[in-house]
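Lab notebook, page 48
Experiment: co-folding of the full assembly
Goal: obtain a model of how the components sit together before planning crosslinking
Operator: M.T.
Materials (sequences as entered):
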Amino acid sequence: MIDIQNLSKTFRTADGNVEALKDVSLRISDGDIFGIIGMSGAGKSTLVRCINLLERPSEGRVIVDGEDLGSLTETQLRERRREITMIFQGFHLLMQRTCLKNVCFPLELAGMKRADAQKRALELLETVGLKDKANAYPAQLSGGQQQRVAIARALATNPKVLLCDEATSALDPNTTNAILELIQEINEKTGITVIVITHQMSVVEKICRHVAILDGGTVVEQGEVSEVFSRPQSAAARRLVFPEGDLPAVQSVKGRLLRVVFNGAEAANTPLITRMAVEQGIQASIVYASTKSIGDKAYGLMLLGLPDDDSIVRTAIAYLTKTQGILAEEVTDGV
Amino acid sequence: MFEDLFAPDKVEEARLIIQTQFPTAIWETVYVTILSTLFAIVIGLPLGVLLVTGDKNGVLPLPRWLMQTLNVIINLLRSVPFLILMIMVFPLTRAIVGTVVGTTATIVPLVIAAFPFVARLTESSLREVNPNLIEMAQSMGASPVQIITKVMIPESVPSLLSNATIAITTVLGYSAMSGILGGGGLGKIAINYGYYRYKDLIMIAAVILLIVLVQVFQTVGTKLAVSTDKRLK
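Observation: model returned without errors.
Model output:
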């Protein structure tokens, strides 16, 4: 378990002090996939670097499995870092080493014998599907392949925690999905705790179970992903959930409003609203919709205008929530 | 100057000297250049590493006064003209080699002139290493020494090689200059025959050979730098 307690980080710059993090407290349980989402400048990168103490927090503590990382000596800390590894937006592979040697890198640091390290590295490259690229150099690989090598490298020392710092932000949507699926698969197989730093909603929606929303260096909201995304309370959360700005014409809608959240629903190819009209005879107007399909799954949110009738609203909710991955509830204020 | 450059007697004389003296002179120049560069690298490379890692934000910060002293010494040595430096280190040369004239004796001033240069070249090569790679290594628990030996130096090998080429050609130039003060090699022949005795043809031949040597070093160095760089393929 990772317990971040009242973490603050202030940078001293020529133009005065910059408070990157203010009193951040988070608790991340073992085996979780935890998302930390925020706009650029929200302090995400600083926060993730405080978890392995690449940045020393100005105040507060980072406790991993009951051990306060701040109290460790440099040597002890270096050993702990083998258990909290990291992948990056820019992959950061050693360009003058082959893929195999890149995966061997953390094992070399740990002092493992060359032959053993290579054997383990090959296994890991197989896990990420790049065994045939073992002797290729990173420059010969695509971005997605490079990130797979970086993942293999991060897993080499059998870490308990994997920190992903905008790991898919430099990749195209398809590659992003493949990488996220790989991370999810590894999480399921090994039980590794994954912390995902991102500015993309879709990343959090796809793989995270819990999420914290970071804004201006503070955690403004945290909880289960479906919970936070279906009922965003803070301004920052709303900005993320509704990137086009708050819903415009909602107040003027007559009748009742139903918010439908698609959280990986297998409904991308189904005309859900039309079917509801045909099968249940409910005529819903789409007040707002921002959904997208990833694979055959739908993500996003829709606001439906319904007639002012309790039974119709209830039927609609029951009908919609029959499909897995859909949350529906009545709202009054348009959020 | 350059009158009757190709008069038959002059050509004959030049041919004789080229045949008798040039092979040794070429060997001396190559030997002094390579040996001096090697020693300069042995001293300059670690210093260059220190210049980068000892920085305030480096992986192994050193006290500010130490870094400043180091920088001043390097700049000082770099700003003394080579011939003056050669005279200034005569006592040291005598102490190490036993004499101040001859081919081997010039190695001492050459090394002293070249190692600060090599240190600066190394510094610039290492500063090119992507700082994110250093952060990556730190995040995997690398110690400062491991970062230097497993990340900074290996990642900058192509750049280090092309800078070593610059160093070796510079040392070659200095070694030719040392001909004035008793150094051996092609520089000595160019100065002794061409400048002191007006045998222009011999001087031109020696200079052409120096140019050829620079070309050879440069070509080999560039080829090596390119072939070791795995980013380009």
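Interpretation: Residues 8-53 of chain B form the longest helix (46 residues).
Next step: discuss with group before ordering constructs.
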